[in-house]
Design a protein that fits this description.
Number of helices: 14
Structural class: mainly alpha
Number of strands: 4
Largest sheet: 2 strands, antiparallel
Shape: globular
Distance between the termini: 48 Å
Radius of gyration: 25 Å
Amino acid sequence: MLPSARRRTFFGRPWSDYALFSILLGPNLALLVVFTYRPLIENFQFSFYDWNLSSPTSTFVGLANYREWFSRDDTWVIVGNTVIFTIAAVVGSLVLGLVLALLLDQKLRGRNFVRSAVFAPFVISGAAIGIAFQFVFDPNFGLVQDLLHRVGLSSPDFYQDPHWALFMITVTYLWKNLGYTFVIYLAALQGVRKELMEAAEIDRASTWTTFRKVLLPQLRPTTFFLSITVLLNSLQVFDIINVMTRGGPLGNGTTTMVFQVYEETFRNFRAGYGATVATIMFVVLLIITLVQVRIMDRDDQR
């Protein structure tokens, strides 16, 4: 038997390949197990218990937490806030990010400075931005109030009206995270096939037709990636809501599901119920992600 043949002892691969694979991948897998999968499993277990964080013991209650969540009156208000905020954040981020990327992909004077200015808020703390935008939306002396006063309009009470409060935190989140989608789309535009754009120009296709038929299909993988990441990020927004409204006004005016997890766990000391809300969020996100992946695979097979 040849020496090379003796070395291939497992599925036709030398053991050294598996050793290198284990060395490179092992630490990452260990971190995932310890900091991602283990907490996920424990959170699912906690959802079947009535547990006060200050107590060393917990009581098994089965599906009682889940039945309570589906039967509570405030559940659907919180779900509605989450859906509205998430849809507005995802659609707004994708549309505005693409528009800015298309604009700043042109050869304009000072475009590098503007690119940096658009991306800068993304790296700033959400809590700091929330504090700053409290003054922007203040109905008495804020920037929005001043601009509306100049055109003869009165400022909405962003801190007392639940609808305007939800609008306020949505705009704040969009301003902070717009730089993320902008940078990703700007990078994707660098890989657009120029010959296709030139062919559309030779065929005298309109700007809208070129955008819809030539450019957008090439950006589909990027849009798919951004739709998932922005969706996941927007559903986990906590700092802006906590700083600006603390889930109010009127109790749950801007409370989303992730903020409810915090309130139930650390304010009401109901860790089991908070774990229930977190588990429901995880299941919903998993389903949405699987559907998105399925749709993307189906489009790629066409």
